């Protein structure tokens, strides 16, 4: 049966297909939970590493170890826009035409924190912090910064 929400409908726009396939955004406890694919995370990593918004061409240039084809970048960007992981940041001239630039809507740390705390089997906060403090990356400098953050939170 061909209907409004079925992918077999030839009159359905690519945007609505992307929305059906890629929009897994949901709201839980005040946080936006996004289920990003491996390819979407690769694009996000490039955007997070950049200090400025990037065009599609810039993303292709800066994506070193990508698992997706260059021709898929448009679909991936539309999926990230639908999930509100990125936003259109402007327009730049690319050769003879103009292209959109994209920027992340949240930091890498915000994304992973939201992912952890919106998961159905979320960890206990104290247990998570205890496990993080056991990591060898946590040195005296990090502990000092954490103490400052805790003091600010206590207000």
Would you mind describing this structure in some detail?
With 155 residues, the protein is an alpha+beta fold. Helix content is 47%, strand content 16%. The protein contains seven helices and five strands, in the order αββαβααββααα. The protein has helices at residues 14-22, 38-49, 56-62, 73-82, 108-118, 125-133, 140-154, and strands at residues 26-28, 31-33, 54-55, 86-94, 97-104. The protein has a three-stranded antiparallel sheet with strand order 3-5-4. Helix 1 packs across helix 4 (73-82).
Unreliable segments of 5+ consecutive residues: 1-31
Determine the mean pLDDT.
82
**Largest sheet, strands/sense/barrel:** 3 strands, antiparallel
Bin the helical content: 40-55%
The total strand number stands at 5
Strand arrangement in the largest pleated sheet: 3-5-4
Rg, Å, rounded: 19 Å
Number of helices: 7
Strand content range:
15-25%
Q: Span from first to last CA?
A: 59 Å
Q: Helix/strand/pairing class, anyone?
A: alpha+beta
């Amino acid at each position: 049966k061909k209907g409004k929400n079925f992918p077999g409908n030839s009159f359905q726009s690519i945007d609505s297909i992307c929305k059906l396939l890629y929009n897994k955004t949901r709201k839980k406890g005040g946080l936006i939970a996004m289920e990003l694919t491996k390819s979407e995370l690769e694009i996000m990593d490039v955007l997070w590493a950049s200090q400025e918004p990037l065009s599609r061409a810039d993303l292709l240039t800066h994506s070193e170890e990508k698992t997706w084809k260059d021709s898929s970048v448009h679909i991936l960007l539309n999926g990230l826009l639908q999930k509100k992981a990125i936003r259109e940041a402007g327009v730049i001239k690319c050769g003879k035409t103009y292209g959109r630039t994209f920027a992340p809507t949240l930091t890498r740390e915000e994304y992973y924190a939201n992912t952890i705390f919106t998961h159905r089997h979320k960890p206990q906060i104290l247990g998570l912090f205890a496990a993080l403090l056991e990591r060898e990356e946590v040195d005296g400098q990090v502990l000092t910064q954490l103490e400052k953050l805790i003091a600010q939170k206590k207000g």
